[in-house]
Amino acid sequence: MEQTDAPDENPFAPPDANLLGDDLAEYVAAGAVAGFRRSTSIIGAAIFCIVANSVIALAQNLWQLVEFASAPEVFRAPPLFLFTVLSFGSTGCGLASALSLHRFRRMLLLRTESTAPSFGAGVLHYRNFWKFFFISIACELATAILGGLGIDVTAPYSELP
Amino acid sequence: MNPDPQSTPSDTAVLRTLQKWVRNAGRVYVCLAVAAIAPVIIRFHAEFADPRYLDRGTMIFVVGMIAVAAGLFVAPGVMMLRCALRLRRLHDPPSRSDLSAFLDSHRRMWNVTVISLIIQTILLLISLASEQIIAAMIESQY
After folding, report:
1. Contact, B96 vs B38, CB < 8 A?
2. Do A36 and B94 touch (CB under 8 A)?
3. For residue B15, what are the CA distances in angstroms to A36, A59, A102, A115, A142?
């Protein structure tokens, strides 16, 4: 059964003075896993927020898409096409990042200090999370810059050229 | 079977693969703050070039917008950049103090990011609700 939260443990208890080489690396890896495990609750909250954020944004995008669907020719207008790509890219990558973060969190909950040296695969999930998260917020930034330049990508189709 | 230590990256090396993406995400967050604040300042600078037109409500709105953008985007961005810096300082194998500093900064970054995400979600909900309300009002008028 999955643990609900990280136990209260001290990842930085003093190491045995005789630890050397691989043993020291294992000790450090165990400390890293234990340290990460202290963040599992907040990471869980982050997953919830990212999913909620993406689902609401997706609903908003779909709503606008339904409104625009009455005039398919407007999709040829570059601003609207760009808006569609950016908004769906942002929500899609947001959901993908939440999935990667969930996998990383599950790895943290299942791993124990004794299996700590093999936590590399879990950290790769975490790296994937950061990649997707970066792409997601980069799409948001692009939308914000377009808005700042005065290109109203969400303008009603009647106002588009 | 023991993995070949020459071909298997160490845990520190695996951890450090995060650095680039955490740093990039931090930079984008800081840019987002600039992208959110700049149009507000430019618009109000153009509309209220004469300080006599700047009433208290407008000033509160502008300062409020800047504070919200700073809180929403600058704070998590700076925490991510700090976390990336701590990752860069990890040697192989890392010292306990470096690892401890990284994990502390990582935890603080997540606390700030989650607060920012919660506020963003609430603002998104408000914006979605207000759009529907405005649409319903326009529909009822015509």
Report:
1. no
2. no
3. 11, 36, 18, 16, 29
Please give the ipTM for the structure prediction.
Answer: 0.79
CA distance B86 to A14: 21
For A146, name the nearest residue in chain B, comparing CA atoms only: B35
Cα–chain center distance at A151: 28
Nearest-CA distance B47 → chain A (Å): 15
Asked if A130 and B121 come within 8 Å (Cβ–Cβ), the reply is no
- DSSP-assigned letters across all residues of B68-134: HHIIIIIHHHHHHHHHHHHHHT--SSPPHHHHHHHHHHHHHHHHHHHHHHHHHHHHHHHHHHHHHHH
**Cα–Cα separations (whole angstroms), residue B21 to A59, A127, B30:** 28, 7, 14
Range of A126-130, B45-49, B127-131 with top mean pLDDT: A126-130
Do the Cβ atoms of B25 and A133 come within 8 Å? Answer: yes
pLDDT, tens digit (0-9, with 9 covering 90-100), for A132-153 = 999 999 998 888 887 777 665 5
How many CB atoms are closer than 10 A to CB B32? 22
DSSP one-letter code for A74: G
